[in-house]
Amino acid sequence: MPPPSRRRRRLMAAHYNAIVTTRMISSTHNTTNNNNNNNNNNNNKKSYGDDGSVEESKEKMHGALRVSLPSPLANYNRKRRKGMLFKKWAIQERLRQQQQQQERQERQERQ
């Protein structure tokens, strides 16, 4: 397999950095003022403020930000696939042209 091209490598790096930053954001962002309550995984949590008031907090899922990131190579791969398809089509087209020429020549020879 060839080494990844410079462009591809840059895309991957950008993608990875995006993931890392969103991970950091999502992990630090979801802190509610819940005293001695460490299980942050339930979405509908009551947290008790200092004065004893109850706040309902709809907490974001940790992975939500991370999941919605599209693959950085999607565009690259799409274009690549398009190119491959075009190449296939071009080859077929060339073959078609050759066949038509042969048929024409045969017709001319018959006449």
TrEMBL record:
It comes from the Eukaryota. Residues 23-79 are annotated as: Disordered. Residues 30-44 have a biased composition (Low complexity). This is Uncharacterized protein. It comes from Perkinsus olseni (Perkinsus atlanticus).
